[in-house]
Design brief:
Order of helices and strands: EHEEHE
Mean pLDDT: 90
Low-confidence stretches: none
Number of helices: 2
Number of strands: 4
Radius of gyration: 12 Å
Structural class: alpha+beta
């Protein structure tokens, strides 16, 4: 069962830091994907959230720990 966790961050800098921290903290075999999520109708980068997509093929990552990591950077773990 391949589980995908999506962490929502307020800006690119925070998202990039979370990507590196997630790899270091959780020993991920591959770097999470970074995705810009523009808010509906907005083209300005200032009006975008950034998503960090963490693949969890073995369903071994703790959702609470991922949410805590995102919260350290003013973000959250999106509910499945």
């Amino acid at each position: 069962m391949n589980v995908r966790h999506v962490l929502v961050l307020p800006d690119r800098d925070a998202a990039e830091e979370v990507v590196q921290e997630a790899v270091d903290r959780f020993g991920l075999p591959e770097e999470p994907q970074l995705v810009r999520d523009a808010l509906a109708g907005e083209d300005d980068a200032e009006d975008a959230q950034w998503l960090v997509v963490v693949e969890d093929p073995q369903d071994r990552l703790d959702a609470t720990a991922l949410d805590g990591l995102a919260a350290e950077y003013e973000g959250w773990l999106e509910a499945p």
